[in-house]
Protein backbone atom coordinates (compact mmCIF):
# COMPACT_ATOMS: atom_id res chain seq x y z
CA UNK A 1 0.00 0.00 0.00
CA UNK A 2 1.44 3.38 -1.03
CA UNK A 3 1.55 6.61 0.93
CA UNK A 4 -1.82 7.61 2.32
CA UNK A 5 -2.96 10.68 4.23
CA UNK A 6 -5.42 10.97 7.09
CA UNK A 7 -6.56 14.50 7.97
CA UNK A 8 -7.54 15.10 11.59
CA UNK A 9 -9.71 18.21 11.46
CA UNK A 10 -9.76 18.87 15.22
CA UNK A 11 -9.32 17.01 18.49
CA UNK A 12 -9.26 17.55 22.24
CA UNK A 13 -6.99 14.63 23.08
CA UNK A 14 -3.53 14.94 24.66
CA UNK A 15 -1.99 13.36 21.55
CA UNK A 16 -2.77 11.12 18.57
CA UNK A 17 -0.62 8.19 19.63
CA UNK A 18 -3.47 5.61 19.52
CA UNK A 19 -4.43 6.59 15.96
CA UNK A 20 -0.83 6.64 14.79
CA UNK A 21 -0.25 3.21 16.29
CA UNK A 22 -3.10 1.82 14.18
CA UNK A 23 -2.60 3.70 10.91
CA UNK A 24 1.11 4.45 10.41
CA UNK A 25 1.97 0.73 10.02
CA UNK A 26 -0.31 0.52 6.95
CA UNK A 27 1.20 3.57 5.26
CA UNK A 28 -0.69 6.59 6.60
CA UNK A 29 0.82 9.98 7.31
CA UNK A 30 -1.06 12.52 9.39
CA UNK A 31 -2.02 16.13 8.75
CA UNK A 32 -3.71 17.83 11.68
CA UNK A 33 -5.56 21.02 12.51
CA UNK A 34 -7.91 22.58 15.00
CA UNK A 35 -10.39 23.71 12.37
CA UNK A 36 -13.31 25.93 13.35
CA UNK A 37 -14.67 26.88 9.94
CA UNK A 38 -15.69 24.91 6.88
CA UNK A 39 -13.05 26.70 4.83
CA UNK A 40 -10.31 25.58 7.20
CA UNK A 41 -11.59 22.02 6.95
CA UNK A 42 -11.71 22.16 3.14
CA UNK A 43 -8.11 23.36 2.90
CA UNK A 44 -6.79 20.77 5.35
CA UNK A 45 -8.72 17.82 3.95
CA UNK A 46 -8.74 18.52 0.19
CA UNK A 47 -6.29 15.75 -0.74
CA UNK A 48 -6.75 13.44 2.26
CA UNK A 49 -7.60 9.78 1.78
CA UNK A 50 -9.42 9.65 5.11
CA UNK A 51 -10.79 12.15 7.64
CA UNK A 52 -11.05 12.00 11.40
CA UNK A 53 -13.22 14.73 12.88
CA UNK A 54 -14.51 15.71 16.30
CA UNK A 55 -16.51 18.96 16.11
CA UNK A 56 -15.40 20.73 12.92
CA UNK A 57 -18.09 21.35 10.27
CA UNK A 58 -17.94 18.85 7.41
CA UNK A 59 -20.39 20.66 5.15
CA UNK A 60 -21.64 19.85 1.66
CA UNK A 61 -19.16 22.36 0.23
CA UNK A 62 -16.29 20.70 2.08
CA UNK A 63 -17.30 17.25 0.88
CA UNK A 64 -17.60 18.31 -2.77
CA UNK A 65 -14.09 19.77 -2.64
CA UNK A 66 -12.52 16.51 -1.50
CA UNK A 67 -10.45 14.84 -4.22
CA UNK A 68 -9.43 11.49 -2.69
CA UNK A 69 -11.45 10.91 0.47
CA UNK A 70 -12.70 7.36 0.97
CA UNK A 71 -14.08 7.64 4.52
CA UNK A 72 -15.06 10.19 7.19
CA UNK A 73 -14.97 9.03 10.81
CA UNK A 74 -16.56 11.05 13.61
CA UNK A 75 -14.99 10.79 17.04
CA UNK A 76 -18.17 9.95 18.97
CA UNK A 77 -21.74 8.84 18.48
CA UNK A 78 -23.52 11.87 17.02
CA UNK A 79 -22.74 12.87 13.44
CA UNK A 80 -24.65 16.15 13.23
CA UNK A 81 -21.49 18.08 12.23
CA UNK A 82 -21.26 16.05 9.00
CA UNK A 83 -23.53 16.48 5.96
CA UNK A 84 -24.55 12.85 5.59
CA UNK A 85 -26.51 13.31 2.36
CA UNK A 86 -23.66 15.10 0.60
CA UNK A 87 -21.27 12.34 1.66
CA UNK A 88 -23.70 9.69 0.46
CA UNK A 89 -24.06 11.43 -2.90
CA UNK A 90 -20.27 11.31 -3.23
CA UNK A 91 -20.21 7.65 -2.12
CA UNK A 92 -18.16 8.48 0.99
CA UNK A 93 -19.13 6.44 4.04
CA UNK A 94 -19.56 8.41 7.25
CA UNK A 95 -18.74 6.29 10.27
CA UNK A 96 -19.30 6.92 13.96
CA UNK A 97 -18.02 5.20 17.11
CA UNK A 98 -21.12 4.18 19.06
CA UNK A 99 -19.48 1.55 21.28
CA UNK A 100 -16.66 3.37 23.06
CA UNK A 101 -18.38 4.95 26.10
CA UNK A 102 -21.53 2.97 26.77
CA UNK A 103 -20.54 2.37 30.38
CA UNK A 104 -19.49 5.96 31.02
CA UNK A 105 -22.61 7.58 29.54
CA UNK A 106 -24.96 5.17 31.26
CA UNK A 107 -23.13 5.67 34.57
CA UNK A 108 -23.36 9.44 34.15
CA UNK A 109 -27.06 9.19 33.30
CA UNK A 110 -27.76 7.30 36.51
CA UNK A 111 -25.59 9.74 38.45
CA UNK A 112 -27.63 12.66 37.14
CA UNK A 113 -30.87 10.83 37.83
CA UNK A 114 -29.92 10.08 41.43
CA UNK A 115 -28.60 13.58 41.99
CA UNK A 116 -31.70 15.37 40.70
CA UNK A 117 -34.21 13.01 42.33
CA UNK A 118 -32.40 12.82 45.68
CA UNK A 119 -31.57 16.56 45.44
CA UNK A 120 -27.97 15.86 46.37
CA UNK A 121 -26.47 19.24 45.32
CA UNK A 122 -29.10 21.17 47.29
CA UNK A 123 -28.53 19.08 50.42
CA UNK A 124 -24.75 19.45 50.11
CA UNK A 125 -25.12 23.23 49.85
CA UNK A 126 -27.39 23.31 52.90
CA UNK A 127 -24.88 21.36 54.97
CA UNK A 128 -22.10 23.70 53.84
CA UNK A 129 -24.25 26.61 54.99
CA UNK A 130 -24.64 25.07 58.43
CA UNK A 131 -28.12 23.63 57.96
CA UNK A 132 -28.42 20.06 59.23
CA UNK A 133 -31.80 18.55 58.45
CA UNK A 134 -32.54 14.84 58.44
CA UNK A 135 -35.42 15.31 55.98
CA UNK A 136 -34.28 18.25 53.82
CA UNK A 137 -35.49 19.60 50.51
CA UNK A 138 -38.96 18.09 50.66
CA UNK A 139 -40.43 16.41 48.76
CA UNK A 140 -37.99 13.69 47.71
CA UNK A 141 -39.60 10.71 45.99
CA UNK A 142 -38.53 7.10 46.46
CA UNK A 143 -37.39 5.23 43.35
CA UNK A 144 -38.80 1.79 44.01
CA UNK A 145 -41.69 0.94 41.65
CA UNK A 146 -41.35 4.27 39.82
CA UNK A 147 -41.15 4.23 36.03
CA UNK A 148 -38.03 5.07 34.07
CA UNK A 149 -38.77 5.67 30.41
CA UNK A 150 -36.13 5.94 27.71
CA UNK A 151 -36.61 7.79 24.45
CA UNK A 152 -34.58 5.45 22.30
CA UNK A 153 -33.61 1.85 23.01
CA UNK A 154 -30.06 1.58 21.74
CA UNK A 155 -26.94 0.39 23.56
CA UNK A 156 -26.79 3.25 26.06
CA UNK A 157 -30.52 3.26 26.82
CA UNK A 158 -30.40 -0.48 27.48
CA UNK A 159 -27.37 -0.03 29.75
CA UNK A 160 -29.22 2.72 31.64
CA UNK A 161 -32.25 0.49 32.11
CA UNK A 162 -30.06 -2.38 33.31
CA UNK A 163 -28.64 -0.11 36.02
CA UNK A 164 -31.99 1.46 36.86
CA UNK A 165 -33.60 -1.90 37.55
CA UNK A 166 -31.17 -2.34 40.45
CA UNK A 167 -32.96 0.58 42.13
CA UNK A 168 -36.36 -1.08 41.74
CA UNK A 169 -37.47 1.04 38.80
CA UNK A 170 -39.85 -0.35 36.21
CA UNK A 171 -38.71 0.26 32.64
CA UNK A 172 -40.56 1.37 29.53
CA UNK A 173 -39.08 2.57 26.26
CA UNK A 174 -39.99 4.19 22.98
CA UNK A 175 -38.12 3.23 19.83
CA UNK A 176 -40.02 2.44 16.62
CA UNK A 177 -36.87 1.08 14.96
CA UNK A 178 -36.19 -1.72 17.47
CA UNK A 179 -38.05 -5.03 17.06
CA UNK A 180 -40.59 -6.08 19.69
CA UNK A 181 -38.60 -9.24 20.37
CA UNK A 182 -35.70 -7.28 21.88
CA UNK A 183 -38.01 -5.43 24.26
CA UNK A 184 -39.52 -8.75 25.34
CA UNK A 185 -36.12 -10.38 25.71
CA UNK A 186 -34.93 -7.62 28.04
CA UNK A 187 -38.19 -7.34 29.98
CA UNK A 188 -38.93 -3.75 28.94
CA UNK A 189 -42.39 -2.54 27.97
CA UNK A 190 -42.52 -0.99 24.50
CA UNK A 191 -44.74 2.11 24.41
CA UNK A 192 -45.70 4.85 21.98
CA UNK A 193 -44.47 8.42 22.33
CA UNK A 194 -47.43 9.84 24.22
CA UNK A 195 -47.44 6.89 26.63
CA UNK A 196 -43.73 7.39 27.26
CA UNK A 197 -44.36 11.01 28.21
CA UNK A 198 -47.37 10.30 30.36
CA UNK A 199 -46.08 7.25 32.22
CA UNK A 200 -42.45 8.17 32.95
CA UNK A 201 -41.42 9.36 36.40
CA UNK A 202 -37.92 9.75 34.98
CA UNK A 203 -37.58 10.36 31.24
CA UNK A 204 -34.09 9.61 29.96
CA UNK A 205 -33.28 10.82 26.43
CA UNK A 206 -31.12 8.68 24.16
CA UNK A 207 -31.87 9.93 20.65
CA UNK A 208 -29.71 11.11 17.76
CA UNK A 209 -30.25 14.70 16.64
CA UNK A 210 -32.15 14.66 13.36
CA UNK A 211 -34.81 16.83 11.77
CA UNK A 212 -37.34 14.44 13.27
CA UNK A 213 -35.98 14.62 16.82
CA UNK A 214 -34.97 18.28 17.02
CA UNK A 215 -37.14 19.94 19.71
CA UNK A 216 -39.12 16.74 20.19
CA UNK A 217 -39.22 17.82 23.83
CA UNK A 218 -41.21 21.04 23.49
CA UNK A 219 -44.05 22.87 25.19
CA UNK A 220 -46.66 20.36 24.04
CA UNK A 221 -44.69 17.27 25.02
CA UNK A 222 -43.72 18.70 28.41
CA UNK A 223 -47.40 19.32 29.21
CA UNK A 224 -48.05 15.59 28.69
CA UNK A 225 -45.62 14.67 31.47
CA UNK A 226 -46.36 14.24 35.16
CA UNK A 227 -45.74 17.37 37.29
CA UNK A 228 -43.59 15.11 39.50
CA UNK A 229 -41.46 13.84 36.57
CA UNK A 230 -37.81 14.47 35.83
CA UNK A 231 -35.96 14.66 32.49
CA UNK A 232 -32.37 13.47 32.06
CA UNK A 233 -30.55 14.21 28.80
CA UNK A 234 -27.14 12.76 27.93
CA UNK A 235 -27.70 12.52 24.17
CA UNK A 236 -28.02 15.76 22.19
CA UNK A 237 -29.01 19.21 23.44
CA UNK A 238 -31.12 20.10 20.42
CA UNK A 239 -33.64 17.40 21.31
CA UNK A 240 -35.00 19.77 23.96
CA UNK A 241 -36.42 23.19 23.12
CA UNK A 242 -34.59 25.24 25.73
CA UNK A 243 -37.14 28.02 26.20
CA UNK A 244 -39.93 25.48 26.63
CA UNK A 245 -37.92 23.65 29.29
CA UNK A 246 -37.19 26.88 31.16
CA UNK A 247 -40.89 27.74 31.19
CA UNK A 248 -41.83 24.22 32.29
CA UNK A 249 -39.38 24.27 35.20
CA UNK A 250 -40.36 27.80 36.20
CA UNK A 251 -44.08 26.97 36.20
CA UNK A 252 -43.86 23.54 37.80
CA UNK A 253 -44.97 21.65 34.70
CA UNK A 254 -42.30 19.06 35.55
CA UNK A 255 -40.28 18.62 38.75
CA UNK A 256 -36.77 18.94 37.38
CA UNK A 257 -34.16 18.32 34.70
CA UNK A 258 -30.59 17.06 34.66
CA UNK A 259 -28.69 17.87 31.48
CA UNK A 260 -25.24 16.99 30.19
CA UNK A 261 -25.95 18.50 26.76
CA UNK A 262 -27.44 21.85 25.73
CA UNK A 263 -28.66 23.42 22.50
CA UNK A 264 -25.86 25.98 22.77
CA UNK A 265 -22.58 24.95 24.35
CA UNK A 266 -21.06 26.18 26.51
CA UNK A 267 -24.18 27.41 28.27
CA UNK A 268 -24.54 31.19 28.52
CA UNK A 269 -23.57 32.52 31.94
CA UNK A 270 -26.91 34.34 32.22
CA UNK A 271 -29.04 31.29 31.37
CA UNK A 272 -32.02 30.93 33.74
CA UNK A 273 -31.24 27.21 33.94
CA UNK A 274 -28.13 27.96 35.98
CA UNK A 275 -30.21 29.71 38.65
CA UNK A 276 -32.77 26.94 39.09
CA UNK A 277 -32.28 24.49 41.94
CA UNK A 278 -34.44 21.98 40.09
CA UNK A 279 -32.00 21.89 37.17
CA UNK A 280 -28.56 20.26 37.18
CA UNK A 281 -26.10 20.82 34.34
CA UNK A 282 -22.81 19.09 33.58
CA UNK A 283 -20.45 20.05 30.79
CA UNK A 284 -21.04 17.46 28.03
CA UNK A 285 -18.70 15.14 29.90
CA UNK A 286 -20.80 11.97 30.21
CA UNK A 287 -18.63 10.23 27.65
CA UNK A 288 -15.38 10.83 29.44
CA UNK A 289 -13.07 8.56 31.36
CA UNK A 290 -9.42 7.94 30.71
CA UNK A 291 -10.39 4.47 29.51
CA UNK A 292 -13.07 5.66 27.10
CA UNK A 293 -10.78 8.35 25.71
CA UNK A 294 -8.24 5.79 24.51
CA UNK A 295 -10.96 3.50 23.17
CA UNK A 296 -12.52 6.35 21.18
CA UNK A 297 -9.24 7.20 19.48
CA UNK A 298 -8.35 3.59 18.75
CA UNK A 299 -11.82 2.55 17.57
CA UNK A 300 -12.02 5.54 15.21
CA UNK A 301 -8.67 4.67 13.64
CA UNK A 302 -9.62 0.99 13.33
CA UNK A 303 -12.58 1.93 11.13
CA UNK A 304 -10.19 3.56 8.67
CA UNK A 305 -7.85 0.56 8.81
CA UNK A 306 -10.74 -1.78 8.07
CA UNK A 307 -11.67 0.11 4.92
CA UNK A 308 -8.12 0.31 3.59
CA UNK A 309 -7.56 -3.37 4.42
CA UNK A 310 -10.47 -4.43 2.24
CA UNK A 311 -13.01 -4.85 5.04
CA UNK A 312 -16.29 -3.04 5.63
CA UNK A 313 -16.35 -0.49 8.48
CA UNK A 314 -18.54 -1.57 11.37
CA UNK A 315 -20.62 1.55 11.89
CA UNK A 316 -21.54 3.28 8.62
CA UNK A 317 -24.37 5.76 9.26
CA UNK A 318 -25.22 7.07 5.79
CA UNK A 319 -26.08 3.88 3.88
CA UNK A 320 -23.01 3.80 1.69
CA UNK A 321 -21.60 0.43 0.73
CA UNK A 322 -17.88 0.48 1.42
CA UNK A 323 -15.04 -1.96 1.44
Notes on the protein architecture:
The protein has helices spanning 17-23, 38-45, 60-64, 84-89, 102-118, 120-128, 155-165, 180-186, 193-199, 219-223, 242-250, 290-308; strands spanning 4-8, 28-32, 50-53, 71-74, 94-95, 147-151, 170-174, 189-190, 202-205, 230-233, 256-259, 279-281. It is of the alpha/beta class. It has two domains: 4-100 and 290-308, NAD(P)-binding Rossmann-like Domain (Rossmann fold); 102-281, NAD(P)-binding Rossmann-like Domain (Rossmann fold, 3-Layer(aba) Sandwich). The strands form two sheets. It has a seven-stranded parallel beta sheet, with helices on both faces. Helix 1 (17-23) packs parallel to helix 12 and helix 5 crosses helix 7 (155-165). The two termini are 15 Å apart.
The fold-level CATH name of the largest domain is Rossmann fold
Q: Report the CATH C-level class of the largest domain.
A: Alpha Beta
Protein structure class: alpha/beta
First-residue to last-residue Cα separation: 15 Å
| Radius of gyration computed on alpha carbons | 21 Å
Relevant CATH superfamily of the largest domain: NAD(P)-binding Rossmann-like Domain
In CATH, the architecture of the largest domain is: 3-Layer(aba) Sandwich
Secondary structure tally: strands:
12
The major β-sheet equals:
7 strands, parallel
Please give the domain count. 2
Task: Name the strands of the widest sheet in spatial order.
Answer: 8-7-6-9-10-11-12
Low-confidence stretches: none
Residue share in β-strands:
5-15%
Q: What letter string, H or E per element, gives the SSE order?
A: EHEHEHEHEHHEHEHEHEHEHEEH
Family: Belongs to the D-isomer specific 2-hydroxyacid dehydrogenase family.
Domain D-isomer specific 2-hydroxyacid dehydrogenase catalytic: 30-318
Pfam families: 2-Hacid_dh, 2-Hacid_dh_C
Protein name: C-terminal binding protein
Amino acid sequence: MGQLTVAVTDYGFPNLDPEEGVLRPIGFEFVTGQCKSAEEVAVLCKDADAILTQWAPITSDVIHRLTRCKIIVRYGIGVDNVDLEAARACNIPVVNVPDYAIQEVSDHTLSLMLSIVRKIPQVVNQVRDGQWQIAPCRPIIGLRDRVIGTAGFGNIARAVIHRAKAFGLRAIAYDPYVPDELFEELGVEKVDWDSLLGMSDILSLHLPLTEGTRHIINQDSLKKMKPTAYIVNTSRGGIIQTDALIDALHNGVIAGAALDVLETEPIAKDSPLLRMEQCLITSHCAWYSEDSLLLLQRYAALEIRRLFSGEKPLHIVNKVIAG
